[in-house]
């Protein structure tokens, strides 16, 4: 029994280490948002996972009532698969630990923020909000 458990645990440990390792593409994306946030507000002092969590979980006013939080489609557990509110289509988990490719393609990230921020917030997200959001989900 031990022969089977130890290799399995080793695979999980390696997988967790890979998911937790900084991704250069995600780091570059966050660096870009940090530069934008600093340009928008000289008082910018860095991203906050707690603010990102609040953005993810909501609720927010201003957007569509049925999507008043990212969690409305993505579930309160960012490691779980979500479901599109209207179409019912499955959505890959938002947490980087469950989906290591999340937030690594700048064009895809911007496309999603451009579409989803108005639906959830009723406006475009700021660079700080984008960075907070990614910082939170990169730690999940």
From TrEMBL:
It comes from the Bacteria. Residues 1-19 form the signal peptide. Residues 75-105 are annotated as: Disordered. This is DUF1924 domain-containing protein. One of its GO terms (molecular function) is electron transfer activity. Keywords: Heme, Iron, Metal-binding, Plasmid, Signal. Coiled coil: none annotated. It holds the Pfam family DUF1924. The keyword Heme applies. It comes from Azospirillum brasilense. Residues 47-140 form the Cytochrome c domain.
